[in-house]
Structures are given as structure tokens and as C-alpha cells.
Amino acid sequence: MFGKRILLLSPHADDETVGASAAIGRARARGARVLVAFLSTGVPAPEWFWPWQRAGHETRVAKRRAEGEAAALKLGFEIAFAQEIPTRTLKSALGSTHRRIAETIAREGIDMLWTPAFEGAHQDHDAANCLAAGFSGRVPVWEFAEYNNAGGVVRSQEFFDPAGAETVLELSHAEIELKRATLALYASERGNLGHIRTRREAFRPLRQYDYAKPPHPGALFYQRFQWVWPRHPRVDYTKPVEVAAALAAFKAETRT
Question: Which range of residues forms the domain containing residue 205?
Fold first, then answer.
């Protein structure tokens, strides 16, 4: 799972820490360069916020960007690029994002790709996994577990469908402390990170997925509060079938 020049696809600034902070450290200890691509701003579009909150949108984006830069300094990775795409919209920018990833792989001589697992944690995570799959014939691709709601049970840093090919990193005390300290840098996400465990990280070679279907039956993690009404800015009301349709269309286009 360790290359010499690793590109990690982070849908939002914090995913690199949630899923791979210790792996980043171990890769760097082996002499690898680790680059992280932030695929979105990590902040929803202004129209998702309450009307009285919208004036502060640019401030929120700038804060999240600064938190990602602080995490880069803390963990020692390089930022390959950071896209100005609102969270929850990566599925609508797959083509342009694919091109930026391809350019980065070529320019930096990337020999390993890391991506969040296809597990329904967040629609942008699943979109990133689909993007990574498009490069599996060019470089080895490994996926890492973040969190999921398979079977109605929230799991963190654990694949809901282990197949025996998983590599589980048991974190040392120093790695746990570093992970917690880096997570704390993401003050804007403090309310969303309470379920994250810090004692392990799980990786495996990217599996072959049918992106035309949701990752698992039942409610995905990002669906858990879609019953809340009126619509709340912190809840993603996108239906998994919408995400699946976008990913399937992208896969069909890239095959032609």
C-alpha cells in the first residue's frame, strides 16, 4: 500500500486525517512523498445555508482552506491542488476533476493512489472512489475506510464488507495523539467528527464496484437525518439514486 509518490484524493479537507493520518506518517517515514488533492471546498454552496448565514460563505470557505493547510504542515503532506467546488457537488464535476487528477499523476510521477472507500459515508467520498477507479489501470489504487452505516450501525475506520485483503494499521500512542491533534485543527468540523475513532486505520486494494447502485442496502450514512424538516444546512438531502446515476453516467462516458 506504500508507493514512493502517493496521491491521496481527499473529497474535503479533513478526510486525509480521518482516514489516513497514520498511513501518511508511515509512508513519509519510508521516504515517500505524499500529495493530497482537496476535491472540494468542504463547504456547501451558499443556497444550502439559512438566508442570514449566506453572507459568511466566503469566510467559511477560507477557514476550511486554512484548516487544510494547517493539517498539511502538521502531517507533512503536500497539497497537490484544491478545487473551488462546493461540497455535495463533486458528482457534477467528475470530468474536470478527472483531468486534474490525470495531470497531477503525470506531472508528479505518482505511483500510488489512495481514496476513501465506496461506503456511503458522504456522496463526495463515493464520487472520489469512482474517480480513482478510472486510474486503476495506470497506478495501484488503495481505498481506506472512514465511516459507514451498513446495517443501521455506524462504523468508523472499518470496512463493512471485509474480504480478507484488508491491511489494518493499529496506531501507536504517538500516532493516536497526532491524529487527535490534527483533527482538532478542523474546528469548523468539530460537530461532525464525534464518531471518528483514532486507534486504527484500514486500507485495501480498490475493489470493483457497480457505481450504478448505492454502496449497500438501507440508509447510507449521509441519509440518516434526511427526515429532518424544514431542510437543515447540515443535512444532505440528496438521494443515493441521484448519486448513482451521476457516477454511472461518468463511467459510461469514460469508457467511450
Answer: 5-255
